[in-house]
Amino acid sequence: MAGEYGAHGPGIKEVLAAANLVVALVVVFFAARKGFAESVKARAQKISKDLIEAKEELLKIRAQSDRARQELQGLDKTRERFVAEVKGEGEKVYAQIVDEARKTADKILEDAKLAAENEMNTAVAELQSSILDKTLQQTEALLRVESGGDPALQKRIHDKLFERLSHDLTRAPGGRA
Q: How confident is the model at residue 1, as a pLDDT?
């Protein structure tokens, strides 16, 4: 009959079980609270330390990136300067080659003129010598015929002709004096 009269709420057993549970939770809470808080605090410190290290690493990487970018810009400027120097040197070499070619062409032309002049002078001298030889041969033949074999007469005619020839040669341009 106890069931009929009684039970309006939890019984003693349930209250004691609930009290035991609360005490156990309080003990666990106080025991674990310090360890849990330290664990959370340690984890937060590690995360904070990792973030600081990551930030420092990021700053280092950015600094390296900036240095690399500056080096690349410097390399671009160096390349441009090098290209300009090479182009300038190429233009100087080109100008020297053209100048040397002109000088060589002028020298070849001058040498050709001198060679032509020398050949002409040689040809004129050979022609004069040939004409002189033929003239002398004809004169000697004529002397023999005209003098009738008289040596004194041949000598006088020869001397007169030689005198006239010498006089003509000294007056002639390019003649032998």
A: 42
Look-up of token digits 């004169």: 139
E strands, 33-119, are: none
Give me the residues of the chain with pLDDT under 50, please: 1-2, 176-177
Q: How many residues does the chain have?
A: 177
CA distance 9 to 5: 12
- CA-to-CA distance for 123 and 129, rounded, in angstroms? 10
Beta carbons of 127 and 172 less than 8 angstroms apart:
no
Instruction: Indicate whether 111 belongs to any domain.
Output: yes
Task: Classify residue 126: in a domain, yes or no.
Answer: yes
**Domain housing 160:** 11-171
Give the angle subtended at the CA of 145 by the CAs of 155 and 163, to the nearest 5°: 35
Q: What pLDDT was estimated at residue 173? A: 61
Q: C-alpha distances in angstroms, 130 versus 44, 126, 137?
A: 124, 6, 10
- Find the farthest-apart pair of alpha carbons in the chain and give their distance in angstroms, rounded: 207
